[in-house]
Write a sequence for this structure.
């Protein structure tokens, strides 16, 4: 059992070191590294706050990646991706990637690439590269920015050839890394899988009502009427046009994520 007496504050994110002996915990304004056997904190890394008015607000460390060489990479609510030396507890480099939040991180299997998902819907890739050709020294460099989402990117994974991302817009996006695949193949194609697979249109057959679910509002329509009856494919004269009865807009910055079918069976 892992019990620590050093936890004074909320834990927002966790990541194990690949050895299984250390845990990095993202908290408010800091990251703590714990020895898994003793439960004691070995390092405390203080995370810088934002600039201007945001400097007075606590920084939330939303995500952490803990690499084999004891490098720690963090994403926070001040829009920063920071690289830390986990052995000494020192900050190596800061990348400001967004004005909002960095919500998710994922490293590749060989730990040469890390991707960060933001609340702007972007995915930013960092790679461990030499700054100059021929040099042995490497550093974490921002290399690509992908914009395939309209809302928060909450989940990320890297395969050998692609970045997979998902979030609040209910889309699962498979973004190929073209330097890892041959061009003009199925692997090089951008793929979007839309969720949910359930219908976003509900019908109340008896009353002739349709309810449409959009990401930020709902629309209730009454179906039009025609004179007479016909067979499928026939064109009938319209007696009454379709009518929009209600449009309900959200009041806060959230999405319409679920709708019960019984909502319009009135």
């Amino acid at each position: 059992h892992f019990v620590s007496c050093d936890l004074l504050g909320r834990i927002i994110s966790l990541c194990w070191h690949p050895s299984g002996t250390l845990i990095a915990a993202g908290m408010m304004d800091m990251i703590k590294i714990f020895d898994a056997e003793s439960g004691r904190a070995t390092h405390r890394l203080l995370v810088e706050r934002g600039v201007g008015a945001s400097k007075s607000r606590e920084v939330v460390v939303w995500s952490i990646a803990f690499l084999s060489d004891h490098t720690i990479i963090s994403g926070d609510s001040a829009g920063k991706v920071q690289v830390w030396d986990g052995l000494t507890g020192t900050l190596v480099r800061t990348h400001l990637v967004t004005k909002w939040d960095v919500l998710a991180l994922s490293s590749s299997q060989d730990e040469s690439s890390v991707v960060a998902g933001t609340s702007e819907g972007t995915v930013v890739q960092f790679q461990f590269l030499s700054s100059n050709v021929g040099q042995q020294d490497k550093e974490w460099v921002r290399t690509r920015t992908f914009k395939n989402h309209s809302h928060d990117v909450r989940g990320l994974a890297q395969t050998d050839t692609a970045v997979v991302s998902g979030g609040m817009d209910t889309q699962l996006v498979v973004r190929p890394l073209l330097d890892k695949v041959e061009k003009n193949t199925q692997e090089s194609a951008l793929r979007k899988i839309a969720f949910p697979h359930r219908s976003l249109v509900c019908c109340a057959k008896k009353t002739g009502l349709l309810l449409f679910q959009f990401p930020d509002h709902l629309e209730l329509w009454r179906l039009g009427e025609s004179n007479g009856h016909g067979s499928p494919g026939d064109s009938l004269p319209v007696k009454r046009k379709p009518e929009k009865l209600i449009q309900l807009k959200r009041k806060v910055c959230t999405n319409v994520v679920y709708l019960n079918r019984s909502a319009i069976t009135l």
Observations:
- The CA atoms of residues 64 and 74 lie 5 Å apart.
- Residues 201-264 form one domain.
- The chain has a mean pLDDT of 83.
